[in-house]
Design goal:
Layout: H1 3-15, E1 28-31, E2 34-37, E3 45-49, E4 56-60, E5 63-67, E6 69-73, E7 78-89, E8 93-103, E9 108-119, E10 122-132, E11 137-140, E12 144-148, E13 152-156, E14 158-162, E15 167-178, E16 181-191, E17 196-207, E18 211-220, E19 225-236, E20 239-249, E21 254-265, E22 270-280, E23 285-296, E24 303-313, E25 320-331, E26 334-344, E27 349-353, H2 363-367, E28 371-374, E29 377-380, E30 383-389, E31 394-409, E32 417-430, E33 433-450, E34 456-472, E35 475-490, H3 546-557, H4 608-611
Protein name: OstA-like protein
Keywords: Signal
Pfam families: OstA_2
Length: about 625
């Protein structure tokens, strides 16, 4: 070092404020214990060392920087700070590192080695951090970690912090670890003040009780609520919820979904569909409406249940399904219709219910009276019970309470119907076909009698206390009258047409669903809400954008024959891609800055000469 220059420099400290320029825009040296020049580093460069009392202190436009050792390049207004470096902006932002270089012209800092950036609601740690004061943007591309007490820890390969917006933007291998869940995504926009997180690209949120997948979503880490779109689904134990739009509340174990919803129960082999649903995990219940459809998946023949509203409640070993308002049931050999249908899956009991609120004069009373079709037979009554074998999944028996009526169309005549009515009906099934029927109390019948050649013998009409019917191949084979009151067989011409219908006769074959689509044929037009959704993905801005390139160019003009130190150590391109482009060929990066510099112009991070400048007390 030059002792004379050193002496003159120290004297100047006491004669005037310790500043190397009167220009307000230049870096000001607030304090230095030892100062010297060293032409071996660079002509005109000044070296500062701390003393025993305090560190070297610089100020520039409201930013304070402390370090144990610094090299200041006056002509480029550029500082390299070494050892225990601390940079503060105002009262809220602080950054510490082993090394920081800072340009007073571009207002860009590069921090290296155990970098810690602290703001009121989070702490960022990384190995290298770029900080643009003009845009108030911090950026890392060597992996980093952000810790926020209430939200957890966020790690990623690339990250940005927009200080004005108080927003973090993480990309590439993003992981948020919270005591209650772990979030993985391609990109995460995070606001530490309110804990709001925006997810882009394939993302998962995995907790002890739920697993969420989405490709576009929002999550409130404070309230533990979320909103998800684009191929989103939530797994609750053995139940999966899918829909165009899903809302999630972790604290209440609640989820709701809108438009094109599917709720799949893998344990009970059932599926519920519709366009609005609510799922309560702790209550083990599902509420679904708007073209609601429940499907009980069976090996050979699934059962479909449709109504205005469906409710599925109870644990898997005691589950209940309720369908109400214009409920319909369909499988290949069975169909039903009622105002409400109640299914107890444990007992294998299906109840078709006629609500009492409909009077006999109500136009909907007949239409909504429970009706059941099995192959060629129609059964109606005030209430119908179907009992299934829960192991074989086949129909076992049938009960019709009050005003029981069994009708089957005669196979040949155009308007002939076999009819049996009574107070109650009990039927038995074999291989899902009705083979035995008992009509109990006040039984009446009208039956078209045919011989083996299917020739009409006559029409039988009778009354008795009870009737037993044997059915073979969907045709009445034998009828037994118990406590018969009267009965006769009439030739067809002698049997009046107005007497060929028992009181209460109501053939409803046109209402019978013959396919899954038929379940919806008399539904009102479906009007779905328009989901405005979350904002689309916008690619992250490059750290070296046009404004930075312009500043770098201007910074180098004052010293055209020297390396532009403001440009050293800066990232030359951002290795990122749009999460939506994951399955597409990788595009070329086009974010190269306008200012170009060659490797030979870039000095080493810490030259050997600078390493020789030991701070007092250093080894």
């Amino acid at each position: 070092m030059n002792p004379l220059k050193n002496l003159l420099f120290i004297i100047s400290i006491f004669l005037s404020p310790f500043s190397f320029a009167q220009e307000k825009q230049k870096i000001t040296i607030e304090y230095a214990g030892i100062a010297a020049s060293d032409p071996e580093i660079e002509d005109g460069a000044l070296i500062f060392l701390r003393d025993e009392s305090q560190q070297v202190h610089f100020i520039h436009k409201g930013v304070n920087l402390w370090c144990d050792k610094a090299v200041y390049y006056q002509d480029q207004d550029y500082i390299e700070a070494f050892s225990n470096v601390n940079m503060k902006q105002g009262d809220s932002i602080s950054m510490v590192a082993k090394y920081i270089d800072y340009s007073g012209k571009t207002e860009i800092a590069v921090a290296k080695g155990d970098v810690v950036l602290t703001e009121p609601n989070s702490v960022l740690t990384t190995d290298k951090l770029y900080f643009d004061r003009t845009r108030q943007l911090a950026y890392y591309d060597t992996s980093g970690k952000v810790v926020r007490d209430s939200s957890g820890t966020i790690t990623s390969q690339i990250g940005r912090y927009y200080m004005n917006a108080k927003k973090y933007q993480f990309t590439k291998d993003v992981v948020l670890v919270n005591p209650d869940y772990t979030l993985n995504t391609e990109r995460l926009d995070f606001f530490p003040d309110n804990g709001h997180a925006y997810l882009f690209g394939p993302s998962t949120i995995v907790g002890e009780e739920s697993h969420i997948y989405t490709e576009r979503g929002f999550y409130d880490t404070n309230a533990n609520t979320g909103y998800f779109q684009r191929n989103s689904k939530i797994n609750y134990d053995n139940r999966t919820v899918e829909g165009d739009s899903i809302y999630f509340d972790r604290n209440r174990s609640f989820a709701s979904a809108t438009n094109n919803i599917t709720v799949t129960d893998t344990l009970n082999n059932s599926i519920v569909k519709g366009h609005y649903a609510e799922v309560w995990r702790d209550k083990d219940s599902v509420f679904i409406t708007k073209r609601a459809l429940a499907i009980t998946v069976q090996e050979k023949d699934s059962v479909y249940l449709h109504a205005d509203t469906l409710m599925v409640t109870g644990k898997e070993d005691n589950r209940i399904t309720r369908a109400y308002y214009n409920a319909k049931l369909y499988k290949s050999d069975l169909a039903g219709k009622a105002d409400s249908i109640h299914v107890n899956h444990k007992k294998g009991l299906t109840e078709l219910i006629n609500l009492k609120r409909f009077s006999s004069t109500d136009a909907f009373a007949i239409a909504r009276k429970p009706v059941l079709w099995n192959l060629g037979n129609q059964m109606t009554g005030d209430t119908i019970h179907l009992i299934s074998n829960t192991e074989t999944e086949k129909l076992d028996s049938l009960k019709v309470f009050n005003n029981a009526f069994l009708v089957s169309k005669d196979t040949i005549s155009e308007d002939g119907y076999n009819q049996i009515k009574g107070q109650r009906l009990i039927g038995l099934f074999k291989d899902n076909e009705l083979y035995n029927v008992d009509i109990i109390k006040n039984a009446e019948t009208i039956r078209y009698m045919r011989n083996e050649a299917n020739e009409l013998i006559g029409i039988q009409k009778s009354k008795s206390g009870s009737i037993n019917i044997q059915i073979i191949e969907q045709a009445i084979e034998e009828v037994r009258f118990i406590n018969q009151i009267d009965g006769n067989i009439f030739p067809e011409p002698d049997f009046p047409r107005n007497a060929r219908r028992l009181r209460g006769f109501d053939w409803r074959g046109e209402e019978r669903p013959t396919s899954v689509d038929d379940l919806f044929k008399d539904d009102p037009p479906l009007v779905l809400p328009k989901i405005s959704g979350l904002e689309d993905y916008v690619p992250p801005e490059d750290f070296i954008d046009d404004s930075v390139a312009e500043r770098l160019e201007q910074a180098g003009k004052a010293t055209p024959n020297k390396p532009n130190r403001a440009a050293q150590n800066l990232p030359q391109e951002d290795e990122e891609k749009d999460p939506k482009e994951d399955l597409k060929p990788k595009k070329e990066q086009t974010t190269q800055p306008k200012v170009e510099w060659t490797p030979k112009d870039k000095p080493t991070e810490i030259s050997e000469e600078k390493k020789k400048l030991k701070v007092k007390g250093e080894e």
